[in-house]
Design brief:
Length: 140
């Protein structure tokens, strides 16, 4: 198992994982455009876990300077592990690496939003030191 930064060559594997996370097909042209733009940004960090040539996990974290913190804040945008590889420490290794990156970048904290339906994910984040401290509201 290898944890590493994602590359452009990982696009198809990441696409497959994100579609699994969202339980829907994503528009591939828009996905490719956003992935290609973000892969080289200093404030976006894409990580993958590969086993035997297959991507089994993906995580993304964006860093932004926020006025209400007067500091940089990291936010996990996506984190997905293939079902067959869950419960084996892969997610915790991704979190550890994201924490390491956020410390290197001198972020004040790491935030993550998670759909209320994903109870297992809530437990995962709490197990990895996150606390439920905010509500997130959305408007379409």
């Amino acid at each position: 198992m290898e944890l590493r930064y994602a590359t452009l060559n990982d696009l198809q594997g990441v696409y497959k994982l994100i579609c699994e996370l969202e339980m829907t097909g994503m528009p591939i042209i828009e996905f490719e455009s956003i992935y290609s733009q973000n892969i080289n940004r200093n404030d976006v960090h894409y990580l993958v876990v590969e086993e035997k040539g297959e991507l089994i996990a993906f995580a993304s974290m964006h860093i932004q300077s926020l006025l209400h913190h007067s500091a940089d804040v990291a936010e996990i945008q996506e984190l997905i592990i293939q079902n067959d590889f869950r419960g084996k420490g892969t997610g915790s290794k991704l979190i550890d690496k994201l924490v390491e990156i956020s410390k290197e970048k001198k972020c004040e904290l790491i935030e993550v939003s998670c759909n209320r339906k994903r109870i297992d994910s809530h437990e995962f984040y709490e197990h990895n030191g996150f606390s439920k401290s905010h509500y997130k509201f959305t408007l379409r």
